[in-house]
Design brief:
Strand order of the largest sheet: 14-13-12-16-21-18-19
CATH superfamily of the domain at 376-513: Cupredoxins -  blue copper proteins
Bound molecules: CU-O-CU linkage, copper (II) ion
CATH topology of the domain at 376-513: Immunoglobulin-like
Radius of gyration: 26 Å
Helix content: 10-25%
Oligomer: single chain
CATH class of the domain at 376-513: Mainly Beta
CATH architecture of the domain at 376-513: Sandwich
Strand content: 35-45%
Shape: globular
Number of strands: 32
Low-confidence stretches: 6-12
Length: about 525
């Protein structure tokens, strides 16, 4: 055995310790530099670079036709025929699609508050469907939920009075587990409501001329021009943007004030709209009605299911390029990377070409609407909705999406999750501790957002809503009242409006019951 001098040993030990210390420091500094350099690169690659840039804006924007109605016994009667279709999105190539009364999307239904409407739906598809009137206050048996099935070849009649105020509503299928695919293939239409107030405001309101609907949807195309859809994806993102079913669109509009009604009709993508020249514009409406006063801004965030109305001043005669920008900074980077593109990318949406006009741009009124707000103190109840987290009660879901629960439960057609008393004023507290933002939608009512993580909502969300994006680590509280309609058996739905999440079971059912009914 060699003899080791203890002092020499100590010295060697000290030397190697300081060397390690230096080395460690160097490694740490190196790692830090790599990290600092890679953040912007990752940010750029996954967050900014995603684009459909270089659009030529070759195609004239399609405007969905306004659906004619027939007056029968004082009621406006409409006909809707969901059917299979074919569309040439890419030149010379055709895609199998679905549409109402046509190949893709549906006609726009236009009504006034107070109208009595009858909508006859004939299902000409080769599969079951339903038709849901998103945002509208209708009886539960007329709501077109998974419970009002229309089998292939079958028909269904919806009858209800228009009780909602002036707003941009929409209709789409809601079959249990198959909503995402049917919407993706084209089953979406707009349902526009006017009322005395909206008509008195002198807002741009000539449909398709200075009041232009924009149904914005992302799609993925196969080389042969067909629509690409993969089952079993968590949420479906495309790289091509369709506006009213038009790829690469432009629209001509009077060089004056022009209203656009934007619907995010995508399955999963959030948009962060603005104009390339950073011009400001006025938001005048949220999902369910006009704001109290116009809100001037340069950006609008819209998650699936949400709508806004904006008024853009084109009187300077300059072309305006509507885009979607990478949104809200670095905080959602992780989500953008891991959740396949929520809110990322910059996509051209639409080129707006002003045309000379002899209209004089009317001033936007300062006051648009009166919104009566409930006092949160007067709420009868607070209900908590936990979005995401572990699944405690799983049900076999027909849909392909991921299994994300609400309050630990996946949707079951035969389970009622919540029972609300007719007339109750309630606060719903939406809590998202998961890794992804969810647009929460409730049927039957319009609500007012009380706060996001305790802070009052931005002006852009200060009006009537039926869908609200709940970000990760966020708690959103809204207040609403459940009135007019009650039914002891037929429920309404609440769900995430990422359609793959909905199909995968991120949905629940609530009854509105009349305690005084026999
Ligand atoms: Cu737009 Cu229950 O849906
Ligand atoms: Cu709905
Ligand atoms: Cu979701």
């Amino acid at each position: 055995m060699p003899c080791r001098h203890p002092i020499l040993f100590m010295a060697a030990d000290t030397v190697s310790k300081t060397n390690y210390g230096k080395l460690l420091k160097r490694i740490l500094i190196g790692l830090l530099i790599v990290l600092i350099v890679s953040i912007p690169i990752v940010y750029y690659l996954f967050y900014v670079r995603v684009t459909n840039g270089g659009l030529e804006f070759e195609n004239a924007l399609r405007i969905p036709e306004a659906l004619e109605s027939e007056m029968v016994e004082g009621k406006k009667v409409f006909e809707l025929r969901p059917q299979l279709g074919r569309m040439e999105f890419l030149e010379g190539k055709s895609a199998e699609t679905m549409g109402y009364n046509g190949n893709f999307l549906g006609p726009t239904i236009r009504v006034d508050k107070g109208d009595e409407v009858v909508i006859n739906v004939t299902n000409e598809l080769d599969e079951m469907t339903t038709v849901h009137w998103h945002g509208m206050h209708v009886p539960p048996d007329m709501d077109g939920t998974p419970h009002q099935k229309i089998v292939a070849g079958g028909s269904w009649q919806a009858r209800f009075p228009i009780l909602n105020e002036a707003s941009t509503m929409w209709y789409h299928p809601h079959p249990h587990g198959a909503t995402a695919q049917q919407v993706y293939r084209g089953l979406v239409g707009l349902f526009l409501i006017e009322d005395e107030n909206s008509k008195s405001l002198n807002l741009p309101s000539e449909y398709g001329v200075d009041d232009i609907p924009l149904v914005i949807q992302e799609r993925l195309f196969n080389r042969d021009g067909s629509l690409h859809y993969e089952l079993n994806k968590g949420a479906y993102y495309g790289d091509a943007i369709l506006v009213n079913g038009t790829l690469d669109p432009h629209v001509r509009a009077p060089a004056s004030l022009v209203r656009f009604r934007l619907l995010n009709g995508s399955n999963a993508r959030d948009y962060y709209f603005g104009f390339e020249d950073e011009r400001s514009f006025h938001q005048i409406a949220t999902d369910g009605g006009l704001l109290e006063s116009p809100h001037e801004t340069t950006r609008i965030r819209l998650s699936p299911g949400e709508r806004v109305e904006i008024v853009v001043d084109l009187s300077d005669g300059e072309e305006a390029l509507l885009k979607t920008f990478p949104d809200y900074g670095l905080t959602l980077l992780a989500e953008a990377v891991f959740a396949d593109g929520i809110g990322n990318g910059q996509f051209d949406i639409l080129k707006i070409i002003p045309e000379a006009t002899d209209r004089v741009a009317a001033e936007l009124p300062q006051r648009l609407n009166t919104i009566e707000r409930w006092d949160p103190e007067d709420a009868d109840k607070t209900r908590r909705m936990m979005l995401g987290g572990p699944v405690r009660e799983g049900h076999p879901m027909p849909g392909p999406g991921p299994r994300i629960p609400i309050n630990g439960k996946l949707m079951s057609m035969s389970r009622v999750d919540e029972v609300v008393e007719l007339g109750a004023v309630e606060i719903w507290e939406l809590v998202n501790r998961g890794g992804q933002a969810h647009p929460f939608h409730i049927h039957d009512v319009q609500f007012l957002i009380l706060d996001r993580n305790g802070a009052p909502p931005d002006a852009s969300e200060s009006g009537w809503k039926d869908t609200v994006l709940v970000n990760t680590n966020e708690t959103v509280r809204f207040i609403t009242q459940f009135n007019t309609y009650a039914d002891p058996d037929i429920p309404y739905m609440y769900h995430c409006h990422i359609l793959e999440h909905e199909d995968g079971g991120m949905m629940g059912q609530f009854l509105v019951v009349d305690p005084d009914a026999p």
